[in-house]
Structure formats: C-alpha cells, structure tokens
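pinging the channel bc i need a second pair of eyes. not urgent but kinda urgent?? the chain im working w is below, pasted from the shared doc
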Amino acid sequence: MKATHKFVIGSLVLAACTFPLGAAGERIDYEAINRIKQQGLNPQTSQVMEISSWLTDVYGPRLTGSPNVKKAADWAVGRMKEWGLVNVGLEPWPDPNGFERGWTNEKFYMAAVSPQSFPIPGTPIAWTPGTNGVVRGDVVLVSEMTAEDLQKFAGRLQGKWILSQPAPDVAAYWAAPAERLAPDELQKMELATPAGPEFGVTSPNAAGRGGRGGFPGANGFNRNDWFKAQGVAGVLTTAPRGHGIYTIGGTRATDPQNAVPQIVIPAEQYGRLARMVAKNIPVTLEADIRNTYTANPPMFNVVGEIRGTDKADEVVMLGAHFDSWHASTGATDNAAGSAAMMEAMRILKQSGVTLRRTVRIGLWTGEEQGLIGSREYVRAHFGACNDVPEQRGGAPQRGAAPAAAPGGAPGGRGRGGCQTGYTLKAEQPKLAAYFNIDNGTGAIHGVYLQQNDAVAPIFREWMEPFRSIGMTTLTIRNTGGTDHQSFDAIGLPGFQFIQDPIEYDTMTHHTNLDAYERLQPTDMMRNATIAAAFAFLAANRDEPLPRKPLPGRQ
C-alpha cells in the first residue's frame, strides 16, 4: 500500500455557536465543520485510502454485470453497516437495460513465438469471446475498411491474427503528463470564459476505444462480422498514446456466437508486429484467452443513509459511479469517487454531527454504459422527462458513444429543455441537493454550478472553511459525462466538483494504468472531507438549495 502522505491540520477554531458569513447569510457551524475536518484530514483517522484499496486491490476491476462488481458492492454494504448507516443495500434496476449477459476476463496470455519469442501485454475488449484454448496463427495487417477493399483477403484469413490498422505514430511526452489547475485556469473558469458550446467543457469522461477495430462503418458494414465469417483467430487494435498505455472499452450488445476475440495491446508491441509484417517476415502469435459470460447478472445501485432529525423526510445525496472498465482495477475512474463518498458518510457518522435532513449515498453501476444506474434511480425516485422513451435493452453506452437524450443530457434536458413535460414523483421536491465526484483523484477546487446562479453565493460561503486547502472556485459552466446529469436533467440541484486533472486524461482514464498507485492520498482525504462538509451544510440549511426552472415544462 502506498505510504500515506503527511497532512498537517492547522489550528482549529473551536466555537460554541454559529457565525453568519457574507451576503448569502449562511450560518456556518464551525464547531461541527472542525469535527469533520479532524476526522477526515488526519491520516491517523482517515480511512479513504483503505477503502480505496479494498475497491481496487481486492475487488477491482468492477465492470458492470461482472461477478467482481457484485462482490465489491456486497463489501461496501457490509462496511457501511459496520459504520452504523441504515437502509443500506443493493437497490435493483427495474430491468437489465441490455445486460442480459455479464462478462469477465479470467485468463489472458499472448506472445509472439516466431521469428523470436516475446510477450505481448493486452486486454480483451469487454463482451468479446475468448480463444477456447491455446491457439496459434500468423499475423496479417488488414487496414482496409470497406467490403469492396476487403475482398482481396477473402478466403486467406482463416486462423490469422489481424492487425486492424497501421502502426500509429507515438509522440514523446513533451509536457509533464500530470498537472494541477493553475490559478489563471481557475480564474478563467470563474469568469466563465467559454470552453466550448454553452460554456461546456469536454468531459474528462468522454469514452475512448482501443483503436478502430471493426466498428460499423458506412452502410452498416462491420469489419468484425466479416472477419468472423473469414474464420480469423482474433483482431488486435491499439492507440497512438504509447508508453505502454492503452485504452479499453466494449459493448454489452456483442453476441459471443457471432463475434471474434478483440484484443487491445500497447502501441510499442503493435508497432513491432506491424513493422515486421511490412518487411515480409512471417510472425506467429500464440494466445490463450478465457472470457466467461454470466446469464442475467443482477443489476443494482448501492445505497445507504444517515437519518436526519426534524427534516428527515428531505434528502441530501452524495454519489459516484461504482463501476469501472477492466484493463486495470478502476482506481481513478472511479474508486476514487466511490471511496471519497463512502468516507464522507463515515466521517459524518463518526464525527457525530447533527444532520437535520437525511444524507444518502448512491454508488451507481452502468455509468460507463451511459449513466444507466443513476438515470434509473432518478427515474424511480424523482421522475423523468416525457420526451425520452423508456430506454431498455438498447440504451446508449458511453463505451461506444456519449450518452445523451434528445435534449442533450440524460433524461432529455439540455439546451432545448424538455419539450413535452415531466412526470415527477412525490420524492422530487424533497431532494435538497446531489453532489458527485467522478473526475479522478485530483483535489477539489470548487463546483460546476450547472448554470444555477442562485447557489453561487451559498457555495461561496460554504467554501470559505476550505479555502486554505484550495477550495476557491465557482464556475457557471456546465460539465458533462458524470452522474450529476441524471439529476440536473429533471431540474434537481445536482453538482460535480472541479478537480485537479493530475494524470486523468493523460494516463489513467479507461486505461491499463488505472490502479491504486495513481491515487493521491492527501487529495483523497481533502475530497472526502469537503464532500462530507457540503452534505452537512446542505442537510442543515433551513431551505433546500435553489433550483433552476424546468425549461419547456407544459
């Protein structure tokens, strides 16, 4: 386990009463905030890295529908019960949402055996079949994409391993792969300097693939279907990032009876194979890949809560997605968020602070396939836009394309709003706030306001006790690709925190390097503590957080 970084807690201001701060008139109970800090920022009491280790080292990866994600969820339920949370359990999705088959990779071995031997690291794309034992085959480069161009290979690919694209050029690391948000970047965010349409940002959660492979092209032609008909041994893909890093994905709609093994390998090994083949040197690969399918796996979210006092029927929620991809153990995406939110709940319980509203945690599965778990939770508890049909079975998958409803966000609420109105549940008015963590391990610096101007003066005062640890910035910008969108889509006050990128986009997001070692302990402790404090402050306000109007409601 990585050694915990030392973090020195400054002198705590103890007070027996609350003090008003600033224009919003928020009353900050500093005695309670300091109890939260003492529990969360002290390496001797923090458990966030221990939680992270369990979710990664022991129960990672956590691909939705796999046995591991169920084991991880059972562990999380047990741990939260030990802490004294109530109503803890696995809340089922209403139906499989296209997860009629679970999948897990149980064995991967690949190596070149001639003209000389060398190992080839890699990972099968999710839901593709295995090799059914040890197989050997020669390597063939097939970069052609159309049915017409592929005809010259017809009848010549039986048992071959296909390099599906030319070897990519791999740039050097001219800039450091890890970074923190500089003061000028935070200032630009605060001033809402446009970063894209509608002050949006390119989501750090935009999914990547491990190369072009055989995905559908023009007129619905799919190269992998053609390769299957030709009897190939499997298809290899890569990505130009190099340095031993590759990105994984997959689609749960893959039919194992009509698919071939698809393997993502690093650019360095891929390029070596391609260059030897280009020299007309025969190259033979040996592989033994065992992928196991599970029929009708359980689909669920993990929930638990601390009951409030006089406003217990109102709820503040903390959330993060629990699932991951499978090339590594899913540490920064998103054990980091799940562990921080679990730790936030433990901090609230252990510190003994009073909560007027109930604080509930939601750990979502199916996020990587299109925010499915949080979307279904919101639909079941709070409501949905009537524009969006019941997305069952064929729901969009983030591993294949960004998930968005017609309005631009899950649930149908985007620039155009919801055109045909909403069906809202009785619980919808009772959600005071939802806070989400899903941008890696980096320290929290503020909040994306999702164009909800009314919460800015409130959050500005809530951030003040954490200014010394970098909590300084509010931006009116939206951010996408995370589960807060499921809440925001029906007018609920759902927010994602601004975080340092660290190595998220450059090295860990959906890659084979997303392991425990990439987590930053001091940042993790800070994030859990800030999440606990925001939940505490939201739970104890006289009023819920302000909401944006529901656009287009009829």
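so Residues 331-351 form the longest helix (21 residues). and The longest strand covers residues 101-114. — does that match what u expected or am i reading it wrong
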